[in-house]
Amino acid sequence: MVAVRDPLEQVADERPLSGPVLTTPIEAILGHDFTRPELLREAMTHRSALFGRGRGRGRSSNERMEFVGDRVLGLLIAEWLAERFPREQEGDLGRRLALLVSQPVLATVADQVGLGETLSVAPGEARAGVRRRATVLADALEAALGALYLDGGIERARDFVRRAWAGVMEAQEAPPKDAKTTLQEWVQARGLGLPDYVVASRVGPPHSPEFVVTVAVGAFEGSGTAGSKRAAEQLAAQDLLRVLGL
């Protein structure tokens, strides 16, 4: 049997030459030496790693940590936005927040910091490239943040968020419009019919579905895949805006 990679396996040659000893790749990514490594192990365990003979006994997947991390991320991003844009009102801040905690941004941040490679998955899922899927990357990032908060507190979580999201935050000049709003305004300005969103498919277990949504305007079409219908619609709108050259 091929063993599932443990994200807490020590890698001696990756330890820093000075400063605190961060004994695993994921601790180096998060910038924190965990006193309760079981939290990090849970955060970095995809549900597929729990399946199979004897596998997952006494272990949990990262879904609980994801639940915590989602709330922590929302708080820390909201705090940062209120600090960075003191003159903006709730509506503009809300649009900024929605973008910064969206699945595409989470997946991009997770990929940039190398989080996917530290995730424990079943061998078959690893061969299928599950570590590169946006939904998996986004969930793992929130789970890692949840574990970091529970072990290191709000300050350590804040430090990581402000490092990892710095580039995305700096790129936000004007408050963003979500893709569906932008697309709708574009078609209405040209007297075209409203975008037509269709759920093309829904796969996966009830607790972790994956939606594929298409959107059409005239002869042009875009598509998006995400863990919720709403997020998939936004990705489909983004894809159609790209097709339209917007």
Short description:
This protein is mainly α and 246 residues long. The chain has two domains: 12-171, Ribonuclease iii, N-terminal Endonuclease Domain, Chain A, CATH 1.10.1520; 179-243, Double Stranded RNA Binding Domain. It contains eleven helices and three strands; from the N terminus they run H-H-H-H-H-H-H-H-H-H-E-E-E-H.
Describe it:
The protein is mainly α. The protein folds into two domains: 12-171, Ribonuclease III domain (Ribonuclease iii, N-terminal Endonuclease Domain, Chain A); 179-243, Double Stranded RNA Binding Domain. The chain is built from eleven helices and three strands; from the N terminus they run ααααααααααβββα. It has helices at residues 25-30, 37-43, 63-84, 90-100, 103-113, 123-127, 134-152, 154-164, 166-171, 179-189, 229-243; strands at residues 196-203, 210-217, 220-226. Strands 1-2-3 form a three-stranded antiparallel β-sheet. The longest helix is centred in the first third of the chain and has 22 residues, at 63-84. The protein is globular and about 60 Å long.
How far apart are the first and last residues' alpha carbons, in Å? 49 Å
The radius of gyration is 20 Å
Number of helices: 11
The helix/strand series, from N terminus to C terminus, equals HHHHHHHHHHEEEH
Q: Tell me the name of the CATH class of the largest domain.
A: Mainly Alpha
* Low-pLDDT regions: 1-5, 9-22
Read across the widest sheet, the strand sequence of neighbours is: 1-2-3
Bulk shape: globular
Number of strand elements: 3
The whole-number mean of residue pLDDT values reads: 84
